[in-house]
């Protein structure tokens, strides 16, 4: 009973904390904080690997699992738009998911407004191309073509239910390290079933492929933990 009461108090405090962050324009959250162009090497390498496959396709489905408040899926969208061009990029759909206890991630991502602190690490030409100032000083909104490409969905990876099974790319970075080893194996096995036959899976650089799954993936990344479905 004591543990249950403690857990309830903790989750209530967490919800209030996340709500206050949202109300103050989501500048910092230790569990959901990220920034644009974080670990850009992994993202660029993944995009280069899928480019030969996706050029000319009418449907390009990508899953960013553990998207937090949007900088990662939008960074991926920018890199894809730069490589595909505006016309072909319209075929891209990035399904951004997270186990969002605050209930606000979807609204933040749909709005696409971020502080300069979250944007300052990206190249200036891309910043100028894809962002416009808002009425609030120091905040900028990402372009509508990119906002239209990212779809948020609340999702718990540990339920082991893929949201689709036709992804050319699945990214799950800075999430799996929080799971137990058996949970990581099960989630990565679920990702395998959600990938197309030539699909790519990307995880954080500190995460290695478990031995139990080496028969399912082949490592293709040089500077990243990028794998192709066998």
Can you offer a commentary on this structure?
The chain has 230 residues and is an alpha/beta fold. It has one domain (34-113, 144-229): Vaccinia Virus protein VP39 (Rossmann fold, 3-Layer(aba) Sandwich), CATH 3.40.50.150. Helix content is 40%, strand content 22%. It contains nine helices and ten strands. It has helices at residues 2-23, 40-54, 71-84, 86-89, 105-111, 116-119, 124-130, 144-147, 181-194; strands at 60-65, 92-98, 113-115, 131-133, 139-142, 150-154, 167-172, 195-203, 217-219, 225-229. The strands form two sheets. A seven-stranded mixed beta sheet has the order 6-2-1-7-8-10-9. Strands 3-5-4 form a three-stranded antiparallel beta sheet. A hairpin with a 5-residue loop joins strand 4 (131-133) and strand 5 (139-142). Helix 2 packs across helix 3 (71-84). The longest helix is centred in the N-terminal third of the chain and has 22 residues, at 2-23. Residues 1-31 have low confidence and may be disordered.
Top keywords for this entry?
9 helices, alpha/beta, single chain, 230 residues, Rossmann fold, three-stranded antiparallel β-sheet
Brief account:
This protein is α/β, with parallel strands linked by helices and 230 residues long. The protein is 40% helix and 22% strand. The radius of gyration is 18 Å and the shape is globular.
